[in-house]
Amino acid sequence: MRRTLSFAIDEGNKKISNRLPYNWTQHSLIAHAAGGIDGMVYTNSLEAFEASYQKGHRLFEIDLAITADGELIARHGWENTYGQHFNPEEGPLSYDHFMKSLYFEQYTPLDFNAVLELMERHQDAYLILDGKVSSVAETRELYRKVEAALEKTKKGLMDRLIPQLFYEGDIEVFRQLGFQDLIYVVGREDYTPESVAVFCKEHDIRVVSLSRSRTNEEFVKTLKTNQIDVYMYTFNDMEKMEPYMDMGVRGFFTDMLSPGKRKSAE
């Protein structure tokens, strides 16, 4: 028996209303760290974003970190060089050093202001913000910088930004700043499927992000019963996604896959 494995097709050329809560969940694939480029991942680079956009992605994830001198940039923390020239053991780069050091000698680093400029140019794109934080206090510090950057942007852009929440205490930070749509990334605090569903319902969080080790039929069913979608991280093989799609998982973070791809499986 043959079956078709497919994703919701992103309508990249159609302007999407930014006013409907969680309307970005029509997109099944999330370009992880702006998406892979030339086999390279985690660059969060200008070229990666533009290449992913050209492939049809409209839902992006960008990592946010802070430089040694306090500037907000797009980077997956400081534990790996990702082809930039520095020693991770010496801690974060300065802003100037970061901006002048290409990823893998060819991909352009972005600060958060440049990320927002990309979002202003691409009005049909949505952006998931992955702050590299380890506490609510760090979330608050990072999002103060996000808030300051947003003050200089056009009205309405904030509606297309979706922070990831790692700690239940983050909810106060995000609501005070006026963020509407959120993703709860489960795993840093004690939880059960029921406790996650209750927390999300109380705070109108309609998307949860799960790792493979935390995803099972009971968890997905509990969330779906409460009208909460599940996105999983990170997949680059459609066949490996199939059993999770059968469970009811809504979508996936990916480095290499493109929206609209279809694959037949036995």
TrEMBL record:
Family matches, as Pfam families: GDPD
GO MF entries: phosphoric diester hydrolase activity
One GO BP: lipid metabolic process
Ranges where the GP-PDE domain occurs: 43-255
TM annotation in the entry: none
Protein name: Glycerophosphoryl diester phosphodiesterase
Organism: Planomicrobium soli
